[in-house]
Write the structure tokens for this entry.
Amino acid sequence: MTTCPPTARILVVDDDPALRDLLCAYLTDTGFAVDLAGDGEAMRRAMQQAMPDAIVMDLMLPNEDGLALTRELRTHCAVPILMLSARGEEIDRVVGLELGADDYLAKPFSPRELLARLRALLRRSQGAGPAPELEGECFGPYRLDRAARRLLCADQDLGLSGAEYDLLKVFIERPNRVLPRDLLLDLLKGYERDPYDRTVDIRVARLRRKIEPDPANPVYVRTVRGAGYLFNPRGTES
């Protein structure tokens, strides 16, 4: 069975000391190394000392909020981000995912659910050893670099987030097949899902902005009305 690394390091960024201490105790007891930060500056200092395997990021932080910090991180770092919010409004979730967060959890939450989501993020981002070779790792001008979890175009890294890479990998493994949203959620998330979850649509939109010549008229990741999405590695109209 695939498991996350036993010594995975989690950085918790939250300005609530009580919640930080609770998560530190819980995650430490379940085998993680945990670093704590109360704001963006403390987050940067912690990451200079030790790069985390995943970040738990509160949306509402002093000075710089979680959205601004996620945007900053995504300019140079693909570390998985689980965003927390006391509000839990759909607009917050959508904006957070659009900016590059990999998952979203509304407060109050069960520590067991947070643990399940973190483990799912770590499984997807780190894996459990060498994976079998994929057929068709190249499409159009792009090449998938599995070892580094990157997408290259003319040897230039396109800077996919972890969530975008995972979605593209699912598509590449299943070319020319209609994949319903429910199936994509099951393949991507690895835990119980909300039937109204829009994660897949948001990730598809983000991925299209990076790989489609015209994201408004996609040729690689196509929408099949009422059915789901289809990946066409040839990128042709027919």
User: Anything to note?
Assistant: Helices lie at 17-29, 40-49, 66-73, 90-99, 111-126, 162-173, 181-189, 199-211.
